[in-house]
Amino acid sequence: MNPLKRLGRRRASVLALLAVAGLVTPAAATAAPDTVRASTLGAQAAQSGRYFGTAVAAGRLGDGTYTGILDREFNSVTPENEMKWDTIERSRGSFNFGPGDQIANRAAARGQRLRGHTLVWHQQLPSWVSSIRDANTLRGVMNNHITQVMNHYKGKVYAWDVVNEAFADGGSGQTRSSVFRDVLGTGFIEEAFRSARSADPSAKLCYNDYNIENWSDAKTQGVYRMVRDFKARGVPIDCVGLQSHFGAGGPPAGFQTTLSNFAALGVDVQITELDIAQAPTAAYANTVRACMNVARCTGITVWGIRDSDSWRSGENPLLFDRNGNKKPAYQSTLTALGGSAATRRTGAPSPRSAAALPSSFRWSSSGALIAPKPDATHNIAGIKDPSVVYYNGKYHVFASTASSAGYNLVYLSFSDWSQAGSATHHYLDRTPIGAGYRAAPQVFYNTQQRLWYLVYQTGNASYSTNPDISNPSGWSAPRNFYSSMPDIIRQNIGNGYWVDMWVICDSANCYLFSSDDNGHLYRSQTTVGQFPNGFTNTVIAAQDSKYALFEASNVYKVQGSNQYLLLVEAIGSDGRRYFRSWTASSLAGSWSPLAASESNPFAKSSNVTFPAGTWTRDISHGEMIRAGYDQTLTIPACKLQYLYQGKDPNAGGDYNSLPWRLGLLTQTNSTC
Ligand code: G2I
């Protein structure tokens, strides 16, 4: 919902309205992420759906130069030592998550991904583990360590290095000697991956090693055979990390071949610990290009920020010098991350989320089905921001009413779309919800509490409850989710507006998403048991330039898959509204592009046909037709339908008086 909806009560000037009403110049709006070169490593990598990360040391987080570069350049972090066994479980059964949490919480607050490093490794292993000689004891200790650590970081870690460096150097192509191999046999690797999958089914599980970059090396071949065997037997593995600690010559000639051969087994590949002696520009560029050329190479992590932070500091192998200045290799890396059209990952299949949804969409639109019904006391210009559930044989639609006087809410119900236009409009300002600024409703049924919830914006994030959705006067007076705007929103909102609150729950937690019309999607969380209270831990769940990630986000669970779908409304280069989409395997996870660009949008006038006549060029704020009506917000994977707001393309003037109407999109390229 546009910020201007707030301005209705503020009597903003027409000029101010025009400035933010989406009447942006094409130049400003072409900041679509797939068309512009970015100026930082993370933002540039994100344009091809990849991340660019760094190893982080908790002990350096007090250094402002270090954190300045960290937050500016990187959108993924790996704790350099803080999640290793000798830190987390130095003595048996006693877990110390402090240093790891410091990095994890900091990353979460900034929307950076987190790679977990590492669960089972023969180094940085306390002697109480390496001295175990009894197989059952060691198996129990290993599985307990994996389970406790993964449980603790559930939802925070995107990918885990489950087993690190298990293969021997040299020509054997076999596993190396370690307490795990020597006491449990080589099967310890499989066992570790199986325990990891059951501990956190939504984290990606990686095998990570060094000197596996050259395709013909015996060690590479040994790891390749193991991954091939795991995939053939259904042992859970999602990714292979190639550490890539290179000499000054950079990657071996066959590096890209190695990446694509692993990827062809059906795993993601990632460059996980990149550093190159003396950091030659060409060596960095060649490494990055190899990843860009492989669709399933999903990200690159350098092993430290400044040369002085490196475990190989004598070789100056990183992208920033000791003073934090960019080195020449920084520029060659940034340029190589720009890639070409052929290197984009957008739409590439993601391993565990299967093809539940297609990676591009086509739609057919109805005409305008629902228009305002002004009465003697409601002089309504537009009906907007619909939320809809199908319950008890009826569609129940809640929407904003817009007029020059401001915003409030309306409810209507009907059994068939053909009757939508003739349904009675119940104005909710006459109910305990009351008059004043209320907008952008979202409705769902809370199965635990047996109550309907209506979530909406009032300047705060507010809600009302009702035991009976069909009784408009049954809604309670507004209550707020937060005592005040969370700090992180206050710090990032700039000149934007806090809008479009959205609640979705999984079996453990409820999440409250909101937008700021300034390029940020926020997420807070509480437990299912505490809901609607206790929303805390607000983080930036996604960010982009202002118009590329504007407002009106929807988040859904896709039925029959482990996918969640995020839709966010953007403003295109033509000044018209459209939707971008992403998926994630958990609600607190990081979002990967699905149909996320202006040229491959989720829904925009360019991928919608209008058999009944083109009545709108904007595909704006709306709601998917769900498969159910409860707090999980489950949608079908097939034959999607989306109720949206559109308007006469020639209409202009006062934003709050624009003639918004509601129409229905039906997907035409459904494959099931
Ligand atoms: O050895 C380079 C990397 C190879 N792959 C796995 C990575 O986990 C590994 O990282 C390095 C860290 O960069 C070092 O920082 O792992 C080393 C340990 O094997 C880390 O070094 C240790 C020192 O050995 C300790 O003495 C020191 O207390 O770093 C610790 C914290 O500074």
Secondary structure elements and their pairing?
Elements: H1 4-7, H2 14-20, H3 26-29, H4 41-46, E1 51-56, H5 64-73, E2 76-79, H6 85-88, H7 98-109, E3 113-120, H8 127-130, H9 135-152, E4 159-164, H10 179-184, H11 188-199, E5 204-209, H12 218-233, E6 239-242, E7 245-246, H13 255-263, E8 268-276, H14 281-292, E9 297-302, H15 328-338, E10 363-365, E11 382-391, E12 394-403, E13 406-414, E14 426-427, E15 439-446, E16 451-457, E17 461-466, E18 479-480, H16 487-492, E19 499-505, E20 509-515, E21 520-527, E22 536-543, E23 551-558, E24 564-571, E25 577-584, E26 592-593, E27 608-609, E28 620-624, E29 634-635, E30 641-646, E31 661-667
Parallel strand pairs: 1-2, 1-9, 2-3, 3-4, 4-5, 5-6, 6-8, 7-8, 8-9, 10-27, 23-29
Antiparallel strand pairs: 10-31, 11-12, 12-13, 13-14, 15-16, 16-17, 17-18, 19-20, 20-21, 21-22, 23-24, 24-25, 25-26, 28-30, 30-31
Helix pairs in contact: 9-11, 14-15
Residues 80-81, 123-124, 164, 210, 243, 273, 311 line the site of ligand G2I.
